[in-house]
Please model this.
Amino acid sequence: LTEAQDILSSAGLVVSEIETQPSEAANMIVIQQIPDAGTNANRGDAVKLIVSGGIVVMPNLQGMTREQAEQTILAYGLTVTSTFDEVVSDPALVGVVTSQAPAMYSEVLPGSAVTFTIGRPSPSLLTASVLLETEKMTDGGTVTVSILAPDGSESLQYTGVYDAENDAPIIVLYRDEPGEATYIVRFNGEEISRGTTVFGEGE
Model:
């Protein structure tokens, strides 16, 4: 960039603007100029330079919890600027990322601002509670809770990183149908408990 500025200055031209864009070229290398090279110009004319700022491929945050999304954004060298809530009627979207900006897999500059939206349960959804057996868990591990269907298939209802100091030992699940359900709790992928809970009880 400095070399390009010196060349333009020697030619009597003025750098009016420097714009940074995502590029696989080395950082701060000129990748484009306006007007183009070879264009007739007069002394004092303005030239815009576009330089490489490096490149980051935006990660897919869909389905992550707020904490997981924030950790991923920081790990990619990006910046969390704001988060939003969105009312959802699909139980699978409660507590996880439903949308993001910039879009997943788009190319952005290092340090770019990222926003995302977390699903908040609709009042129409019914709740049920699961008591965790915290004596079988350790700080920093991953907790998942699934509902077992009559055919033996599982529906993931909750995933999160266990914080032994701050987390309550109760997980709230959401579903649009009332009645009893069998749940399975896993910690770091291993089943640590299963039982039954009732959706809509007392609602």
User: Anything to note?
Assistant: The helical segments are 2-10, 66-75.
